Amino acid sequence: MNHANPHEIPVFFSIDDNYAPFLAVALRSAIDHASPDNRYRAIILHQGLTAENMHKLSALATEHFHIDFVPMETSMACITDRMSNRLRCDYFTLTIYFRLFIPAMFPQYDKGIYIDSDVVVMDDLANLFAVDIGDNYIGACADESVSDVPPLALYMEEGIGTSRYQYINSGVLLMNLKLLREKRLDEHFLHLLSTYHFDCIAPDQDYLNAICKGRIHLLPSRWDLMPNERKPAASDMGIIHYNLFSKPWCYDNIQYEEYFWHYAKDSGYHDELVAYKANYSEEQKASDAQCMGLLAQRGEMIARSEINFKKMHESGVKIRL
After folding, report:
1. Cα distance between residue 39 and residue 138, in whole Å
2. How many other CB atoms are there within 10 angstroms of residue 214's CB atom?
3. 218: number of CA atoms within 13 Å, CB side?
4. Topology of domain 8-314, CATH
5. By CB neighbour count within 10 A (0-12 exposed, 13-18 middle, 19+ buried), where does 161 fall?
6. Which of 248, 251, 247, 246 is nearest to 231 (CA)?
7. Domain ranges in the chain?
8. Are 118 and 199 in contact (CB under 8 A)?
9. Do β-strands 216-218 and 39-47 pair in parallel, antiparallel, or remain unpaired?
10. CA distances from 88 to 60, 93, 197, 317 (A)
11. Per-residue model confidence as pLDDT tens for the chain (321 residues)
12. Which of 80, 159, 181, 307 is the most buried (most CB within 10 A)?
């Protein structure tokens, strides 16, 4: 077992090869805000990352901000082997839930940060890591981007069983890895998955909301700030999360887009990102709009379903850790 430096801040990401340019922007911004007085380790769980992309991402590392690459297959091997006799899903199915396995994959860490790759970091991650979440399982921000969309609010309350104002976004997590290991999050999740195969809109996010309910520390919204055209831009920013279809590398006039393009300049991928946006087709934009409508429809359907997190919990099934 690798023993962690007790003064090191572990920050987990997960990508496939297509997401390398966006991760580069996230890393560039995190490194630019990192204090040389601290030690950081970005742990990139990846699927099929090419040697070229690994090299370009590695070039961003500094003396106090290390970057490690861990193939996801290697990390999850012990989990899939352990559950193979009673788990009815393939490797791909499990990878969409990967952040639920971080506590089991990395026993050397008692606490860690997980961040999606479609972000720009605007503050020192040491300030997030220092937040005391007590005996809660995770710290996360309420998902304000969808709480005012009626079908999705219905889904949160009747499908998951949590208030629309306390349903968290799993794009930024401060994880109590030690406690989640002790409570065997991975085993509990795999049991629920193999027994019920709950239909979800945001798979890992919905399981986390249901499993950790009552033991979630709500972080200030600055740590998972999402573009929302219905609200004025915030001035106090910790992490900007370009969630759902609010992607400045696909669309014009996205709130907070200037920060993405600022860090893209020194990411090593600026030209590729500009080209990506230029080539984002009208068909792709139409598909995005259709997906959002389907998401709302599915949310309403799951909320009324007989097998969802809320109804199973009310029937006596152990959903929460």
Report:
1. 22
2. 10
3. 12
4. Spore Coat Polysaccharide Biosynthesis Protein SpsA; Chain A (3.90.550)
5. buried
6. 246
7. 8-314
8. no
9. unpaired
10. 40, 10, 9, 20
11. 445 666 899 999 999 899 999 999 999 999 999 999 999 999 999 988 999 999 999 999 999 999 999 998 766 665 555 444 344 445 455 667 889 999 999 999 999 999 999 999 999 999 999 999 999 999 999 998 888 889 999 999 999 999 999 999 999 999 999 999 999 999 999 999 889 989 999 989 999 999 999 999 999 999 999 999 888 999 999 999 999 899 999 999 999 999 999 999 999 999 999 999 999 999 999 999 998 889 899 999 999 999 999 999 999 999 999
12. 159
**Contact residues for 194 (Cβ-Cβ < 8 A; gap 6+):** 83, 86, 87, 88, 89
Nearest Cα to Cα of residue 45 among 260, 208, 204, 191: 204
Q: How many residues does the chain have?
A: 321
Tell me, yes or no, if the pTM score tops 0.90. Answer: yes
What pLDDT, on a 0 to 100 scale, did the predictor assign at position 83? 46
Alpha carbon separation from 3 to 7, 12, 106, 220 (Å, rounded): 12, 17, 10, 31
Residues 146, 152 contacting (CB under 8 angstroms): yes
